[in-house]
């Protein structure tokens, strides 16, 4: 059955990153929904639950994402090769749009976890398509429904003498906590990257942080506990790391610490120290630096989860220090090193990713965001000559990676052109030889732990910078007749090097590139394809 195959594809190929749908409860909701169609006399007249009523909306979104990750030579792919059959992209869009119509028809006032999950998966699907503004609105729908269902509040204690019932209820509440943790994490990161107001007030949330444990196949027979030292480690660690950084984002945004001119630099250093302690305390299998690899051969996905943790950690460090690179030498060095770390880790994640998984937004967005920031800092900040050659090589590798992604990832088209433009402005070629691709610079600290250990060794502020001397004149860039709107942006578009310290201008410059390619790279209806003035690049949930 095609539907079952697609559901299996979703949980095997996509949900390792999202960690947004617990398979046990999805399968349970699926069975309940199928029974609601039972024509037998005992079933007639029974009212479907709210979860069953909204389940088709969730199912459509899961199918839509699954189609984006269909492995080659699968039954689904064979179906699309028939005469007049829709392409995989068209089929994916059809599924997702139908799911949106179902939920719109029922109404989001219906209190159902499946409705929350449907909007969350719609958000993920839109991100994979590069439709950033719409994904923010979809996430907003999910957050408001979740708040209406009190997912942000810890449930009251309960008492029962039935052990099976107690375990089932404990895991069900854990299921709700994990759904809220995912919403909180995505909303925090999107608020940071998009420059949008936060929809969640952390002070309103009393719900506990989920435990570090994979969701069991049989909750009624499983104790709610973290794995023992001799047991398989948890994949859920990577989700908890993202949740940890989301909590820091809320605190730092409330303090105004992620804006230029923040007066208390000791807060930035203190956060650095706390991050170091947190990462060193992760389970050994999941530590980005010096991990225990003994489980990798049996569970290869641990490699991807570790890389994901490292990318998120580096990206947070980059966001932490970016506003302060002009005032503090320490921040400029750590921001550049963090950007290189993001690019290197993302390159490794790309190598661990199968071609049919290239649509996932993580690889592309982190790659482009860190690449643009790195290029801008190389252009504007002094004192970076020692690492410039290594940084340029890293940017060239990023361009090469994006060139491989662009056939299946629409945003990679814009990202590749943008980074090529940056390298031209730096007076460098965008191409890289095979020898250069294999080159690594051992003297530069690119691991998270090393960057944190070097924090605090530098004092003082950067001197005044003659920006005009640091930016390659536009006249030095080979001028060709632009073939498209994006080519016009590439040759004449926003000077990102002059805007790196201005958050609003930085956001606007990346939006221009996104707006330039959306209609070119997506052949479907034009509604919602452009990214409006509130969006940015790194939708890093």
Automatic annotation (TrEMBL):
Can you tell me which residues the record assigns to a coiled coil?
A: none
Q: Where does the record place it?
A: Nucleus
Q: Which UniProt keywords apply?
A: Nucleus
Return any one Pfam family short name. Fungal_trans
Q: Which GO terms describe its cellular component?
A: nucleus
Q: Which GO terms describe its molecular function?
A: DNA binding; zinc ion binding
According to its UniProt entry, one GO biological process term is: DNA-templated transcription
Tell me which domain of life the UniProt entry assigns to the organism this sequence originates from: Eukaryota
- Membrane-spanning segments: none
Q: What is its main location?
A: nucleus
Q: Where is the Xylanolytic transcriptional activator regulatory domain?
A: 135-216
* PANTHER family referenced in this protein's UniProt entry, alphabetically: COL-21, UNCHARACTERIZED TRANSCRIPTIONAL REGULATORY PROTEIN
Name of the protein in question:
Xylanolytic transcriptional activator regulatory domain-containing protein
């Amino acid at each position: 059955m095609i539907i079952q195959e697609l559901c299996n594809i979703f949980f095997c190929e996509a949900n390792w990153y999202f960690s947004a749908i617990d398979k046990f409860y999805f399968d349970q909701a699926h069975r309940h929904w199928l029974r609601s169609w039972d024509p037998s006399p005992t079933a007639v007249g029974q009212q479907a639950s709210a979860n069953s009523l909204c389940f088709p909306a969730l199912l459509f979104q899961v199918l839509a994402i699954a189609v984006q990750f269909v492995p080659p030579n699968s039954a689904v792919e064979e179906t699309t090769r028939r005469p007049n059959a829709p392409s995989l992209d068209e089929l994916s869009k059809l599924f997702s749009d139908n799911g949106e119509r179902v939920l719109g028809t029922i109404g989001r006032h219906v209190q159902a976890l499946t409705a929350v999950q449907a909007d969350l998966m719609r958000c993920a699907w839109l991100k994979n398509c590069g439709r950033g503004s719409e994904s923010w609105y979809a996430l907003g729908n999910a957050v408001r429904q979740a708040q209406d269902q009190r997912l942000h509040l810890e449930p009251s204690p309960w008492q029962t003498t039935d052990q099976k019932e107690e375990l089932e209820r404990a895991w069900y509440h854990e299921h709700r906590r994990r759904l809220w943790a995912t919403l909180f994490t995505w909303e925090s990161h999107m608020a940071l990257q998009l420059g949008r107001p936060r929809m969640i007030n952390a002070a309103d949330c009393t719900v506990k942080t989920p435990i570090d444990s994979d969701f069991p196949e049989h909750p009624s027979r499983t104790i709610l506990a973290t794995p023992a030292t001799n047991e398989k480690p948890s994949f859920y660690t990577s989700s908890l790391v993202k949740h940890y950084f989301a909590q820091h984002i809320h605190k730092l945004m409330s303090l105004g610490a992620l804006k230029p001119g923040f007066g208390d630099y000791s807060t930035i250093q203190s956060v650095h120290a706390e991050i170091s302690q947190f990462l060193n305390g992760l389970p050994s299998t999941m530590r980005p630096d010096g991990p225990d690899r003994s489980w990798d051969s049996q569970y290869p996905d641990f490699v991807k989860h570790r890389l994901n943790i490292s990318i998120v950690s580096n990206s947070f460090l980059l966001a932490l220090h970016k506003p302060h690179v002009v005032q503090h030498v320490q921040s400029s060095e750590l921001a550049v090193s963090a950007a290189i770390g993001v690019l290197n880790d993302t390159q490794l994640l790309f190598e661990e990713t199968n071609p049919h998984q290239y649509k996932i937004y993580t690889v592309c967005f982190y790659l482009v965001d860190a690449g643009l920031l790195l290029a801008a800092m190389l252009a504007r900040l002094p004192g970076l000559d020692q690492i410039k050659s290594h940084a340029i090589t890293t940017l060239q590798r990023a361009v090469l990676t994006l060139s491989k992604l662009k056939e299946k990832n629409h945003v990679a088209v814009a990202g590749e052109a943008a980074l090529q433009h940056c390298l031209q402005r730096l007076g460098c070629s965008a191409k890289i030889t095979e020898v250069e691709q294999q080159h690594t610079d051992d003297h530069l600290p690119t691991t998270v732990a090393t960057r944190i250990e070097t924090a605090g060794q530098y004092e003082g502020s950067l001197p005044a910078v003659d920006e005009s001397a640091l930016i390659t004149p536009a006249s030095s860039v080979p001028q060709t007749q632009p073939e498209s709107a994006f080519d016009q942006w590439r040759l004449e578009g926003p000077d990102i090097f002059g805007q790196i310290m201005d958050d609003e201008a930085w956001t606007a410059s990346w939006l221009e590139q996104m707006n330039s390619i959306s209609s070119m790279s997506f052949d479907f209806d034009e509604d919602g394809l452009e990214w409006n003035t509130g969006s940015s690049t790194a939708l890093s949930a």
